Amino acid sequence: MTARPFRGALLGPAATLLLLALCSGCAGSQRSVRHAPRARTAPPPADSLTLLLWHMDETGGSEVTDAGPLHLLGLAGPDTRTDFGRIERARLFTRSIDSFVACGYADPLESPTALTVEAWVRVDEYGQYEDTPIAGRWTPNVNEHSWLFTVLGRDLLPPIANLPSPGQHQDLLPASIGGDNLGKLMFAFQPRDAGTPLSFVSNRALEIGRWTHVAVSYDGRVVRFYVDGNLDAQYAVLGAIRPSPAPLLVGNSFDPRWLTNFGTTEIHVLSNVDRNPYYAFVGAIDELRISNAVRTAFPYVR
Asked: In angstroms, rounded to a whole number, what is the distance separating the alpha carbons of residues 180 and 204?
């Protein structure tokens, strides 16, 4: 196996203490305790820095509406469905090659030195293979590698795994997969001026069955991970993300040439290809936002 390209200098994450106060009052001989009302979790805003914002609030169908200023329509595969989400509704993803949301190539999605990808996610199963992507512009074609935001899996081999992995993300993995890294976030990108992709891993792993807000940002100098609005890990690295003709694929990873025409409202993977769902995300994704800016605060996360 090739050397693991897990690079960058780890900088210490900032620690945040949250203090909750209880207020009590007394009226005569009767004591009452009042709790401050909990702030309602809000969706991220569609501001001028937003490239794409999918609230995933549809009640059905294949179209996923973009609330951002560019109105980049997503098309969901037939093995996803809508369900209750972290905020209103969400898109539920299953262990299937036809479980995905795709958006064809759009030039505004190129953001080489100012990128933030964020979403509410609920992981229901860790993947059998290297990882299960949340979102990415990364295909099996090495000339179409741009960036990938994903959850590390078990990296199993047969007979425990159904089939051997195609190894499309094998060179991105840290030196130790499974165990301490199982369920952690990974961000990988292909540098514009280098031949080897770089990958970075969060400190915290995602819990099965729990809604978690996750985010990663890159400014050409530092990769930062955020979990539930708090800085989790950061890595110093120089370089720009390489542009790519790859589409945006959410909840899965496969060769986009296997898809039927993006020009229709119904989209699925062709029947005459390898349909094993190696990298299918199993769980729910809500409020996916991609920004051409480095966001360091997520005040709407509660």
From this structure: 10
pLDDT in tens, 216-274: 999 999 999 999 999 999 999 999 999 999 999 999 999 999 998 766 678 999 999 99
Tokens found for residue 205: 């792993």
Structure token pair of residue 99:
């479980």
Token pair of 185 as six digits: 């976030």
**What pTM was computed for the model?**
0.86
Parse the chain into domains and list their residue ranges: 53-291
Q: How many CB atoms lie within 10 A of CB 73?
A: 16
d(CA 45, CA 107): 22
What is the topology classification, in CATH, of domain 53-291?
Jelly Rolls (2.60.120)
Q: Can you tell me the distance from the alpha carbon of 41 to that of 87, in angstroms, rounded to the nearest whole number?
A: 7
For the CA atoms of 285, 287, 289, 295, what is the dihedral angle to 10 degrees? -110
